[in-house]
Every structure is written in structure tokens, then in C-alpha cells.
């Protein structure tokens, strides 16, 4: 039965398209569909395996990562005509967590189009925070359950990155904790990034793309800004270091590839 | 300056279980009166307009020990009405399992007029403040998820949430909104001082009180500003840090060394009722507070500039001025507020 509907839909689509005098390729994309963003966490060129093997960064520190959770938010997609589709802000906050395996963000009801880039935030913006109870909705308890609530300041950890490390001078495996978020009203660590998709992501009633994003956890401490755990292994509220962690984290994302299709396979 | 919501859009229909008839439970909006001598409201009333049922639910939650892990420590345990919603006689807030915090319980009067909450401004939204004591392991030692689950399991609360809010029932958003509605209504503005300022009956000051007001305006009001008696800023007032606590204050939130030992300037409303004083409750009397300001201060990099003078640190006060200030503090007591049955536990 399903295939009949598909056939019918396709026929209708074809009829509709043939009636259109617009010969822009995008004009053939009708309706709406979901867009899936898969956040694939890695370290350097390798897959990220929690609490398994250590890896050594450029600062000669060997890290065994046990937790990598971060908040991604405020998604928007830009099409080939430069038009921006902004996802409903209220629905636009997600915790991705390597340990629970929830690393997919599914954006529903995206209008048909040929999308060339995606923009999103890392963390929670002040505007949402300052909406109080109304703005947080259920996201507060979601954050609490995923270790992303900084309960002592009733705020959010944008990034929760933990594990153990050794270095030349720290020879016994020692815990590290990197928790990054905004510092009350005094420091806003929310960042936004725009990633070019490389391959156009096509959305229509028939097409539901999967955008495969790689997050290189190495960048968090060993990106543009170098932060040595040997010097400070617990980085939380630090006016000097947390903005560096925020910048590094925002630059850890790249689009690896885009699957165009029905959205049910990689 | 009156926020009046006199029409409630929805009437809630509650099924009566005995006979399946419907009884209408009407919710009504409450009026938030901004006293004419106060600055403008900060709290966004339109985002969470207090209603009668929301307020009553907030009050019930405020006095319910269920919000703590032990089941015994409510918000009202440390915020006692008779002490203007502070923890009388306790230097630090007491929590579950006899644990003790490191800071003195601040008042929660007039919170709708503030932008930052807690001694260090850990949150900048009133709605979200209750998360801090609820989740603090030496205060209420719970989680938000834990509290919500306990409330969901309670049929009475379920009904009350349904009646107070149009949608959502028992959830974190409505939970925080209800407590905020209760706090937003807690306005203390009926002291003798207020009557004096507003030229109302009962506002005639004695000579000593008037002199004290003059001293206050000249020497204290740059920080304890407006009729809220605070400018809401974070300042280091020169208290010698307690080495056992070494509480860094605002710096714990901002992560900035320039904020070391800074705490929010507290309101002085009802100050005669809110002993002990300072963020760590080190002073048991207002006399001790004044003595500290005249000769107890220590210098440090972040000491507030207004407390450094060419004659030395602190505020110069003679005995007569101190007596005047103490008399002035008395007229900040608002008996209407501390006896207001709307806010009473029983």
C-alpha cells in the first residue's frame, strides 16, 4: 500500500512540476520533511570511544574521555537562494550525549528546498535564559538528567567534558573536568557557528536528508587555544579559560557529508 | 503603576467524581501594586501573571518540605515571615540532615524589583532561583526531577496545578511559575519610612529618626540606594574574610579576580528583624554592623572605592549619628508585611 501512495505522490508531484513555468531546480521540491543532524564525536582522526583508550594531544597529555555532552540550539538552514529558515526557537534546544547515545537532532517540518548551510548555537543564549520558567519549559529537567544543569547557579553547562589524563609530570591517571557555560550575567559563553554543507541537502515530501557532522573533541582543549590539564585539570568558572573553551568548542564541528534520500538510511 | 488583570480567559471545568457533574472553579488574576515610592518592576508580569490559584499553589509549595530530600526542609524553614523571611538566629542556613550552608539567608521581600538573586547573583531570573536551594546538597538536597516526580505522584497537587495553569499540569515550568507568583506578591512597602515618604498618616518622624535619615542619605545611600535600599550591585565592603570559609562571593559566579569578596548590597527593609547580618551572618546586632563600618574594615584590592577616604577606610560616624541610624533602621520595619496572612504558613 505504501508504495502506491508514494507512487501517487510522485505522480502528483510530477504533474504539479510540469505545470510550473519556473525552471529553477528547487521548484521541483515540494512540501516539507524532517532534517536529521547526526553529531558524530571523534578525537583527532579517530572515533571517540568513552572510557576506553587514551589518546595523546599536541601538548603531550594523554586523555581518556569518559563524558562528552553538549547543548546545541537555535538551528537555522540557509537555502541556495540565501533564504534562511529558522527553526522554532522553543523547540530548538537539544542535549547531545555520547554516553547515552543520543547524538541525533531531528528538525521536523522543514520546508522543501535546497539547503547549503546550517547554523546553530552551542549552549543556551541569554535571551532564552532570561525568559525564566516560561522559556526553559522542560529543558531544565532534561538538562538536569543529562548532567547539564549547573544547579548552583540555576544555569546550564553548555559543555560537560570529563575523563582522566596523564602527562610528563602527572604520571598517575588524574580526573579532569571541563564544564563550560555562561557566568551568570557577567560572561556570556554562548556561541554560534555556520557550517557549509558541501553537498546540497535536499528537502521535499520525498527527501529527508541526514547531515553528518563530525565533532572533534580534541579541539576542546587542544584547538586554537591550548589549555594544558597539567596546569589546571578542573576548568569551570574561569574568566580567562572558559571563553577559550567556548571558542574551541564552537570550532570543533565540521560537516563530513550529507545523505540525500528518504532519511531512513545512512 | 498598576498591573491589573481583572479578566481571566478561562474557567476551569473540573469533573466532580461523585456525580459526574461539572463545577466551575474560577481563577482570577491578582493585582500587583507598585508602591509609588518604588522603582519600576523588573519582573515580567505578563510572562507569568499571578493568579489566585497560582499564588496559593506557590504558597503551598513554599511551605512544603516535600521540596527537600528529607521531606522536612521547606523554603519557609529558612525564610520565616516573622523575621521578614530570613532565618532568625541562624548565622547560616540549615538544611537537610542537619547540614549547614555557608551563607546567611537573605530576605525575599520585594524580589520582583531585582535583577540578580542570591548573595553572588548566581541567577539573573527570579523564576529560576528556587533551583539553587532545592538542589544544594546542604540546603534541600533534592533534584528538580525528583521534586516534580513527587508532585506528580500527589493527586491533590495534580489537581491544583491543573486548576492554576491552563496547560502543562505538574511540570518544572509551572512549578517555578507558581513559586515565583508567590514571591512576586511579597511586597514590603508599608513601614513608617514609607508613610513618611508618601506623606501618609503615621509617617511623622521623631527628631532622632529624622536625623538618622539625614545621616543615612549622606553616608549610606550611595549603595543602599532607592526605596529598596540597595542599588543591586556587588561590592566588597571590607569584611575581613573568614579564613575557614574564604567565600569569594561574586567571583564564584563570574570567575573574575576583580570580583573577589564582592557580595550583593542587601536591602535594608525590615533590617531590625533580620539579624544576623552580612553574607556570613557574622554580626548579631546592628550596633556591631555600624562599629564595623567605622573601624572594622580591612583593605584589599577589591575593596569598594566609596569606602576609601582620605581619612582612612570606612564610614566616619559619631555616637550621635549611630544612634540616629539605629532609630532610622527601626522605621524600616513593616509590620503589615510580616503579619500579612496572605504569606503566612498557618
Structural features, described:
The complex is a heterodimer of chains A (266) and B (346). Chain A is α+β, with helices and mostly antiparallel strands and 266 residues long. Helix content of chain A is 18%, strand content 41%. Chain A contains six helices and 16 strands. The model of chain A is unreliable at 1-25 (pLDDT under 50). In chain B, the strands form four sheets. A two-stranded antiparallel sheet of chain B has the order 1-4. A two-stranded antiparallel sheet of chain B has the order 2-3. Chain B has a two-stranded antiparallel sheet with strand order 5-6. In chain B, α1 (52-62) runs antiparallel to α5 (155-164), α1 (52-62) packs across α6 and α8 (207-219) packs across α11. Chain B has 346 residues and is mainly alpha-helical. Chain B has helices at residues 52-62, 75-78, 131-135, 144-152, 155-164, 172-184, 192-197, 207-219, 251-254, 286-295, 319-330, 335-338; strands at 2-3, 12-15, 22-25, 32-33, 234-235, 263-264, 308-309, 312-313. In chain B, a hairpin with a 6-residue loop joins β2 and β3 (22-25). Classes of the chains: A alpha+beta (266), B mainly alpha (346). At the A-B interface, α3 and α4 of A face α3, α4, α6 and α9 of B.
Summarize this structure briefly.
Chain A: Pfam families: MbnP. The complex is a heterodimer of chains A (266) and B (346). Chain A has 266 residues and is α+β, with helices and mostly antiparallel strands.
Which labels suit this protein?
heterodimer, A: 266 residues, alpha+beta, 9-stranded mixed sheet, 5-stranded mixed sheet, 16 strands, B: 346 residues, mainly alpha, Cytochrome Bc1 Complex, Chain D, domain 2, 2 domains, two-stranded antiparallel sheet, 12 helices, 8 strands
Gyration radius of chain A, to the nearest Å? 21 Å
Main pleated-sheet profile of chain A: 9 strands, mixed
| Succession of helices and strands of chain A | HEEEEEEEEHHHEEEEEEHEHE
| Level-1 CATH class name of the largest domain in chain B | Mainly Alpha
Tell me the total number of β-strands of chain A. Answer: 16
Going by helix content, strand content and strand pairing, the class of chain A is: alpha+beta
Label the CATH architecture of the largest domain in chain B: Orthogonal Bundle
Amino acid at each position: 500500500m505504501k508504495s502506491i501512495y508514494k507512487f501517487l505522490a510522485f505522480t502528483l508531484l510530477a504533474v504539479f512540476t510540469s505545470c510550473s513555468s519556473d525552471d529553477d531546480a528547487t521548484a521541483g521540491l515540494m512540501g516539507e520533511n524532517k532534517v536529521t543532524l547526526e553529531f558524530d564525536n571523534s578525537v583527532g582522526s579517530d572515533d571517540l570511544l568513552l572510557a576506553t583508550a587514551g589518546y595523546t594531544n599536541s601538548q603531550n597529555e594523554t586523555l581518556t574521555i569518559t563524558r562528552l555532552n553538549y547543548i546545541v540550539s537555535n538551528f537555522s538552514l540557509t537555502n541556495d537562494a540565501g533564504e534562511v529558515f529558522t527553526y522554532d526557537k522553543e523547540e530548538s534546544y537539544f542535549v547531545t550525549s555520547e554516553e547515552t547515545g543520543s547524538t541525533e537532532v531531528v528538525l521536523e517540518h522543514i520546508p522543501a528546498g535546497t539547503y547549503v548551510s546550517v547554523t546553530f548555537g552551542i549552549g543556551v543564549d541569554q535571551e532564552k535564559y532570561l525568559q525564566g520558567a516560561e522559556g526553559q519549559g522542560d529543558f531544565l529537567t532534561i538538562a538536569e538528567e543529562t548532567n547539564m544543569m549547573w544547579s548552583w547557579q540555576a544555569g546550564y553547562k553548555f559543555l560537560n567534558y570529563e575523563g582522566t589524563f596523564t602527562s610528563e609530570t602527572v604520571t598517575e591517571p588524574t580526573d579532569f573536568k571541563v564544564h563550560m557555560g555562561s557566568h551568570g550575567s557577567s560572561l556570556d559563553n554562548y556561541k554560534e557557528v555556520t557550517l557549509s554543507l558541501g553537498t546540497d541537502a535536499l528537502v521535499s515530501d520525498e527527501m529527508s536528508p541526514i547531515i553528518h557532522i563530525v565533532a572533534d573533541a580534541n579541539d576542546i582543549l587542544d584547538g586554537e587555544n591550548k589549555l594544558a590539564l597539567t596546569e589546571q585539570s578542573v576548568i569551570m568558572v574561569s574568566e580567562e579559560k572558559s571563553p577559550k573553551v567556548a571558542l574551541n568548542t564552537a570550532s570543533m564541528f565540521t560537516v563530513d557529508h550529507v545523505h540525500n534520500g528518504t532519511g531512513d538510511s545512512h | 503603576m498598576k498591573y491589573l488583570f481583572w479578566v481571566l480567559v478561562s474557567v476551569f471545568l473540573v469533573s466532580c467524581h461523585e456525580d459526574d457533574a461539572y463545577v466551575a472553579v474560577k481563577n482570577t488574576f491578582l493585582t500587583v501594586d507598585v508602591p509609588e515610592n518604588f522603582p519600576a518592576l523588573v519582573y515580567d508580569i505578563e510572562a507569568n501573571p499571578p493568579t489566585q490559584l497560582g499564588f496559593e499553589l506557590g504558597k503551598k509549595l513554599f511551605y512544603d518540605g516535600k521540596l527537600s530530600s528529607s521531606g522536612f526542609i521547606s523554603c519557609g524553614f529558612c525564610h520565616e515571615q516573622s523575621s521578614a523571611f530570613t532565618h532568625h538566629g541562624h548565622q547560616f542556613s540549615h538544611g537537610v540532615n542537619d547540614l549547614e550552608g555557608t551563607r546567611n539567608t537573605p530576605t525575599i521581600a520585594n524580589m520582583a524589583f531585582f535583577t540578580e538573586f542570591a548573595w553572588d547573583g548566581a541567577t539573573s531570573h527570579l523564576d529560576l532561583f528556587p533551583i539553587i536551594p532545592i538542589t544544594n546538597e546542604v540546603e534541600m538536597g533534592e533534584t528538580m526531577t525528583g521534586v516534580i516526580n513527587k508532585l506528580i505522584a500527589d493527586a491533590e497537587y495534580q489537581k491544583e496545578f491543573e486548576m492554576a495553569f491552563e496547560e502543562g499540569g505538574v511540570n518544572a515550568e509551572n512549578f517555578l511559575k507558581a513559586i515565583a507568583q508567590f514571591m512576586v506578591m511579597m511586597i514590603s512597602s508599608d513601614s513608617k519610612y514609607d508613610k513618611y515618604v508618601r506623606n501618609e498618616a503615621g509617617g511623622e518622624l521623631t527628631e532622632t529618626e529624622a536625623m538618622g535619615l539625614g545621616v543615612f542619605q549622606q553616608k549610606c545611600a550611595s549603595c543602599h540606594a532607592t526605596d529598596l535600599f540597595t542599588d543591586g550591585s556587588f561590592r566588597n565592603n571590607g569584611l575581613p574574610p573568614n579564613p575557614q570559609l574564604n567565600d569569594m562571593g561574586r567571583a564564584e559566579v563570574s570567575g573574575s579576580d576583580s570580583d573577589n569578596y564582592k557580595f550583593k548590597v542587601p536591602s535594608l527593609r525590615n533590617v531590625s528583624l533580620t539579624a544576623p547580618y552580612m553574607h556570613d551572618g557574622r554580626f548579631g546586632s546592628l550596633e556591631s554592623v555600624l562599629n564595623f563600618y567605622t573601624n572594622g574594615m580591612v583593605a584589599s584590592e577589591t575593596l569598594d572605592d566609596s569606602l576609601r577616604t582620605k581619612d582612612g577606610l570606612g564610614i566616619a560616624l559619631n555616637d550621635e549619628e549611630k544612634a540616629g541610624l539605629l532609630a532610622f533602621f527601626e522605621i524600616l520595619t513593616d509590620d503589615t508585611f510580616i503579619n500579612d496572612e496572605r504569606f503566612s504558613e498557618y
